[in-house]
Write a structure and sequence with these properties.
Elements: H1 17-23, H2 40-48, H3 55-65, E1 72-75, H4 77-85, E2 90-96, H5 103-114, E3 118-122, H6 124-133, E4 144-148, H7 156-164, E5 171-176, H8 181-193, E6 198-202, H9 211-217, E7 226-229, H10 232-241, E8 245-249, E9 255-256, E10 267-272, H11 280-285, E11 288-291, H12 302-320
Parallel strand pairs: 2-3, 5-6, 5-10, 6-7, 8-10, 8-11, 9-11
Antiparallel strand pairs: 1-4, 2-4
Helix pairs in contact: 4-5, 8-9, 8-12
């Protein structure tokens, strides 16, 4: 019985495909610019422990990469760089592995590495998936995503300590049912610009400090304290006991905000919700309800009203010096 001969034909070539695959994409950062890789292999080896190169360590790492938690994602090159510059608490920086060279990418990676934040390279598809699972489908992440810790709110009394440590009369902004995070972020920018010592928001039925608010604030929320009150009316009463005057903003106010004599003293400015304005209990807690003189417009957006009012307070204080 003769043995069956195996057919041996010519070996197919790769046609250069393998070589091109090894070359990588043109936008990939060269190794010399990947500052976050210093010592990374040693760190991974230490995590695997004495077991050497066993597969279990890699599987555990993959599971930890995909672990869901209460973190939020900040996306986009400018917002991420601004957040890192401002010292926003973060746990991980994700970079797309085929990024065009960009000073912001290098700066973000350097700052993250200096602060001990994990820097992880992933595919663009993986970044898209993470943004979608975080409630940001189609987000323009530009290949840069920062995973941040949940915001740690202050206690309302803490804002009084911040004010005492400054050389200006206390100025606190309270938001009564403002539910649009864009308005929260815009109000935070105005508050910081005109010398406020912090914001107070209710625990319920209010926008919180999320990534939308953060991006709108252009980094201000990393520096301006935001307190959360279980009961806003009670918090306002506490401020009044500490010697602050509470001024609510409403179109039907008793005095025009430019004429507000209380502006030169310690003050809480209360901004009402986008649709209903001041709630009944909050209005009753106000020492004065002030209006903004406007022309033909029926009303102003909450963030615009806050900005105009805080400017008027700032101007009044400057004139009194």
């Amino acid at each position: 019985m003769t043995a069956k001969k195996s057919k041996k034909g010519p070996t197919k070539g790769s046609g250069g495909k393998g070589r091109r695959s090894l070359e990588g994409k043109s936008g990939t950062l060269p190794a010399s610019e990947r500052h976050w890789y210093d010592g990374k292999q040693r760190q991974r080896a230490a995590k695997r422990g004495p077991g050497g190169g066993g597969g279990g360590g890699h599987q555990d790492a993959a599971r930890s990469e995909r672990r869901s938690d209460n973190s939020d994602l900040l996306v986009g090159r400018n917002p991420v760089v601004e957040a890192l510059r401002a010292g926003m608490p973060a746990t991980r920086l994700f970079l797309a592995n085929s990024l065009d060279p960009d000073d912001r990418v290098n700066e973000a990676a350097k700052m993250a590495g200096a602060r001990g934040i994990d820097v992880v390279e992933v595919t663009k598809t993986e970044l898209d998936r993470r943004c979608e699972s975080n409630g940001q489908p189609g987000a323009a992440h530009q290949g840069l995503v920062l995973q941040v810790r949940p915001y740690q709110y202050w206690a309302p009394e803490g804002l009084l300590d911040v004010a005492k440590g400054s050389d200006t009369p206390a100025l606190i902004v309270a938001l009564d049912g403002v539910t649009d995070p864009h308005n929260l972020g815009a109000i935070a920018r105005s508050a910081a610009a005109f010398g406020a010592h912090g914001l107070v928001i209710p625990e319920r039925r209010s926008a919180g400090v999320n990534m939308t608010a953060w991006k709108t604030s252009a980094g201000t929320l990393a520096r301006l304290p935001v307190a959360q009150a279980t009961n806003l009316t009670r918090a306002l009463e506490g401020f009044k006991k500490a010697g602050l005057f509470v001024v609510g903003l409403d179109a039907g106010g008793d005095v025009r905000i430019p004429d507000l004599e209380l502006a030169t003293g310690p003050l809480v400015v209360v901004v009402g919700s986008e649709g209903k304005g001041l709630s009944r209990l909050v209005r009753e807690a106000c020492d004065v309800v002030a209006s903004i003189p406007i022309g033909n417009a029926e009303s102003l957006n909450a963030s615009v009203a806050a900005g105009v009012s805080l400017y008027a307070v700032s101007r009044r204080r400057a004139e009194a010096v």
